[in-house]
Protein backbone atom coordinates (compact mmCIF):
# COMPACT_ATOMS: atom_id res chain seq x y z
CA UNK A 1 0.00 0.00 0.00
CA UNK A 2 1.31 3.44 -0.82
CA UNK A 3 1.93 6.02 1.89
CA UNK A 4 -0.38 8.39 0.01
CA UNK A 5 -3.29 5.94 0.27
CA UNK A 6 -2.68 5.23 3.96
CA UNK A 7 -2.41 8.94 4.83
CA UNK A 8 -5.60 9.72 2.88
CA UNK A 9 -7.69 6.91 4.36
CA UNK A 10 -6.28 6.63 7.89
CA UNK A 11 -5.00 10.07 8.92
CA UNK A 12 -2.53 9.81 11.79
CA UNK A 13 -1.72 6.11 11.26
CA UNK A 14 1.85 4.89 10.95
CA UNK A 15 2.24 4.14 7.25
CA UNK A 16 4.12 0.89 7.90
CA UNK A 17 0.97 -0.72 9.24
CA UNK A 18 0.69 -3.66 11.60
CA UNK A 19 1.06 -7.14 10.14
CA UNK A 20 -1.48 -9.58 11.50
CA UNK A 21 -0.08 -13.02 12.26
CA UNK A 22 -0.94 -15.78 9.81
CA UNK A 23 -0.64 -19.52 10.14
CA UNK A 24 0.95 -19.77 6.68
CA UNK A 25 2.67 -16.61 5.46
CA UNK A 26 3.43 -18.19 2.08
CA UNK A 27 -0.32 -18.26 1.38
CA UNK A 28 -1.92 -15.46 3.43
CA UNK A 29 -0.73 -12.01 4.52
CA UNK A 30 -2.76 -9.33 6.28
CA UNK A 31 -1.86 -5.82 7.35
CA UNK A 32 -3.90 -3.32 9.32
CA UNK A 33 -3.81 0.43 9.94
CA UNK A 34 -5.91 2.35 12.45
CA UNK A 35 -5.84 5.77 14.01
CA UNK A 36 -7.90 8.20 16.02
CA UNK A 37 -7.41 11.78 14.85
CA UNK A 38 -9.40 14.13 17.02
CA UNK A 39 -12.68 12.28 17.34
CA UNK A 40 -12.49 10.60 13.92
CA UNK A 41 -11.53 6.92 13.94
CA UNK A 42 -10.52 5.04 10.82
CA UNK A 43 -9.44 1.43 10.30
CA UNK A 44 -8.13 -0.25 7.16
CA UNK A 45 -7.36 -3.93 6.77
CA UNK A 46 -5.80 -5.46 3.65
CA UNK A 47 -5.60 -9.23 3.26
CA UNK A 48 -3.95 -11.17 0.44
CA UNK A 49 -4.61 -14.86 -0.02
CA UNK A 50 -2.68 -16.69 -2.75
CA UNK A 51 -4.37 -19.76 -4.19
CA UNK A 52 -2.78 -22.59 -6.20
CA UNK A 53 -4.61 -21.55 -9.40
CA UNK A 54 -6.83 -18.90 -10.94
CA UNK A 55 -9.74 -21.36 -10.72
CA UNK A 56 -9.19 -21.91 -7.00
CA UNK A 57 -9.07 -18.13 -6.48
CA UNK A 58 -12.31 -17.75 -8.46
CA UNK A 59 -14.01 -20.36 -6.25
CA UNK A 60 -12.81 -18.61 -3.08
CA UNK A 61 -13.90 -15.23 -4.46
CA UNK A 62 -17.40 -16.53 -5.26
CA UNK A 63 -17.73 -18.06 -1.77
CA UNK A 64 -16.72 -14.79 -0.11
CA UNK A 65 -19.10 -12.71 -2.23
CA UNK A 66 -22.04 -15.13 -1.83
CA UNK A 67 -22.65 -14.12 1.80
CA UNK A 68 -22.62 -10.39 1.00
CA UNK A 69 -25.74 -8.58 -0.16
CA UNK A 70 -26.66 -5.06 -1.12
CA UNK A 71 -23.39 -4.32 -2.92
CA UNK A 72 -22.26 -4.42 -6.48
CA UNK A 73 -19.53 -5.08 -8.99
CA UNK A 74 -16.50 -2.80 -9.11
CA UNK A 75 -15.32 -2.54 -12.72
CA UNK A 76 -11.65 -2.12 -13.51
CA UNK A 77 -10.26 -3.61 -10.29
CA UNK A 78 -8.45 -6.93 -10.70
CA UNK A 79 -10.15 -9.62 -12.77
CA UNK A 80 -13.37 -9.18 -10.82
CA UNK A 81 -14.35 -7.20 -7.72
CA UNK A 82 -17.37 -6.66 -5.49
CA UNK A 83 -18.05 -3.89 -2.96
CA UNK A 84 -20.58 -3.62 -0.15
CA UNK A 85 -21.06 -0.99 2.57
CA UNK A 86 -22.97 -1.52 5.82
CA UNK A 87 -23.89 0.64 8.80
CA UNK A 88 -23.91 -0.67 12.35
CA UNK A 89 -24.89 1.06 15.55
CA UNK A 90 -23.88 0.08 19.05
CA UNK A 91 -24.63 2.19 22.14
CA UNK A 92 -25.84 4.96 19.80
CA UNK A 93 -22.44 5.02 18.03
CA UNK A 94 -22.64 4.57 14.25
CA UNK A 95 -19.87 2.81 12.34
CA UNK A 96 -19.87 2.42 8.60
CA UNK A 97 -17.84 -0.40 7.03
CA UNK A 98 -16.96 -1.04 3.41
CA UNK A 99 -15.66 -4.38 2.16
CA UNK A 100 -14.17 -4.92 -1.28
CA UNK A 101 -13.35 -8.46 -2.40
CA UNK A 102 -11.09 -8.72 -5.45
CA UNK A 103 -9.82 -11.62 -7.52
CA UNK A 104 -6.63 -10.86 -9.40
CA UNK A 105 -5.26 -13.93 -11.15
CA UNK A 106 -4.68 -16.52 -8.39
CA UNK A 107 -4.99 -14.01 -5.53
CA UNK A 108 -8.02 -13.02 -3.48
CA UNK A 109 -7.69 -9.60 -1.85
CA UNK A 110 -10.09 -8.44 0.84
CA UNK A 111 -10.18 -4.78 1.85
CA UNK A 112 -12.09 -3.73 4.96
CA UNK A 113 -12.37 0.01 5.66
CA UNK A 114 -14.47 1.59 8.37
CA UNK A 115 -14.92 4.75 10.35
CA UNK A 116 -16.73 6.53 13.16
CA UNK A 117 -16.86 10.00 14.67
CA UNK A 118 -16.86 9.65 18.44
CA UNK A 119 -17.94 13.25 19.03
CA UNK A 120 -21.08 13.28 16.87
CA UNK A 121 -21.62 9.51 17.18
CA UNK A 122 -22.17 9.50 13.40
CA UNK A 123 -20.28 7.64 10.72
CA UNK A 124 -18.79 8.82 7.45
CA UNK A 125 -21.15 8.65 4.47
CA UNK A 126 -21.53 5.41 2.51
CA UNK A 127 -19.93 7.19 -0.47
CA UNK A 128 -16.82 8.19 1.51
CA UNK A 129 -16.32 4.68 2.90
CA UNK A 130 -17.04 2.95 -0.43
CA UNK A 131 -14.70 5.21 -2.41
CA UNK A 132 -12.00 4.74 0.26
CA UNK A 133 -12.31 0.95 0.19
CA UNK A 134 -12.20 0.91 -3.63
CA UNK A 135 -9.17 3.21 -3.63
CA UNK A 136 -7.39 0.85 -1.24
CA UNK A 137 -8.38 -2.13 -3.43
CA UNK A 138 -6.88 -0.48 -6.52
CA UNK A 139 -3.69 0.23 -4.56
CA UNK A 140 -3.54 -3.35 -3.26
CA UNK A 141 -3.94 -4.81 -6.77
CA UNK A 142 -1.27 -2.45 -8.13
CA UNK A 143 1.12 -3.51 -5.33
CA UNK A 144 0.50 -7.18 -6.15
CA UNK A 145 1.08 -6.62 -9.86
CA UNK A 146 4.29 -4.70 -9.11
CA UNK A 147 5.54 -7.59 -6.96
CA UNK A 148 4.76 -10.12 -9.72
CA UNK A 149 6.77 -8.09 -12.25
CA UNK A 150 9.89 -8.04 -10.06
Model description:
With 150 residues, this protein is of the alpha+beta class. It has a single domain (3-149), classed as Protein Transport Mog1p, Chain A. Helix content is 29%, strand content 40%. The chain has 3 helices and 7 strands; from the N terminus they run αβββαββββα. It has helices at 3-9, 54-66, 126-149, and strands at residues 18-20, 28-37, 40-50, 72-73, 80-90, 93-104, 107-117. The chain has a 7-stranded antiparallel beta sheet. A hairpin with a 7-residue loop joins strand 1 and strand 2 (28-37). The longest helix is centred in the C-terminal third of the chain and has 24 residues, at 126-149. The protein is globular and about 45 Å long. The mean pLDDT is 91.
Encode the helix/strand succession as letters.
HEEEHEEEEH
- CATH fold label: Protein Transport Mog1p, Chain A
Helix and strand content put the structural class at: alpha+beta
Number of helices: 3
Tell me the strand percentage band: 35-45%
CATH architecture classification: 3-Layer(aba) Sandwich
Query: What's the number of domains?
Result: 1
Give the biggest sheet: 7 strands, antiparallel
Spatial gap, N to C terminus: 16 Å
Report the radius of gyration as a whole number of Å.
15 Å
The backbone outline, from C-alpha atoms, is: globular
Unreliable runs: none
Indicate the mean pLDDT: 91
Helix coverage percent of residues?
25-40%
Amino acid sequence: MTEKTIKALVPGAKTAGQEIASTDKSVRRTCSWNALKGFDYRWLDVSYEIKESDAAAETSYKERVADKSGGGAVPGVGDTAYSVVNLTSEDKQDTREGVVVVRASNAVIVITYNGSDFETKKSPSADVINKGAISAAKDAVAALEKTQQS
